[in-house]
């Protein structure tokens, strides 16, 4: 099956294999509290694009661009990261942040799993 994505550098592309629902749940503290059902199974998480766009005021067209470039799974993880960072106050322009993640992917420098691992580790330190 061919995945439809825009041209981008070929690198260890499928960062999604390093991303699990437990990792997402532990990295996204605010989202886990606001909408815990998103993390019950991948189908719920994958179908949450509209909700997450509304939560963080991202234009759905920006999210669709992310899907086109990143693929569905990485795009929803990037949107959830954007929503989490918007909720915790570290991002003031969520649409611009998501666009920057897409641009990093085009350059071959997006490592979403590393960001998530760092967020999860810092969350565990706070709660220890």
How would you describe the oligomerization state of the chains in this entry? single chain
Backbone shape:
globular
Structural class comes to mainly alpha
C-alpha termini separation? 44 Å
Order of helices and strands: HHHHHHHH
Number of helices: 8
Number of strands: 0
Low-pLDDT windows of residues: 1-12
What integer value in Å does the Rg equal? 14 Å
Major sheet attributes: none
How confident overall, as mean pLDDT? 88
Helical coverage, percent range: 55-70%
SS strand fraction: under 5%
In brief, what are we looking at here?
The chain is mainly α and 128 residues long. Helices cover 64% and strands 0% of the residues.
Walk me through the structure:
- By secondary structure, the chain is mostly helical.
- The chain has helices at residues 21-27, 29-34, 42-46, 49-56, 60-70, 72-87, 94-107, 112-126.
- The protein is globular.
- The model is unreliable at 1-12 (pLDDT under 50).
């Amino acid at each position: 099956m061919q995945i439809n994505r825009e041209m981008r550098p070929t690198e260890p592309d499928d960062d999604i294999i390093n991303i699990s629902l437990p990792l997402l749940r532990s990295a996204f503290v605010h989202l886990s509290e606001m909408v815990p059902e998103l993390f019950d199974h991948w189908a719920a998480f994958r179908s949450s694009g509209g909700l997450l766009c509304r939560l963080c005021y991202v234009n759905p067209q920006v999210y669709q661009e992310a899907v086109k470039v990143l693929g569905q799974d990485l795009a929803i993880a990037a949107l959830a990261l954007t929503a989490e960072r918007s909720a915790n106050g570290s991002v003031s322009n969520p649409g611009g942040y998501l666009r920057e993640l897409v641009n990093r992917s085009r350059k071959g420098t997006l490592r979403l799993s590393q960001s998530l691992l760092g967020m999860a580790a810092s969350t565990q330190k706070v709660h220890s």
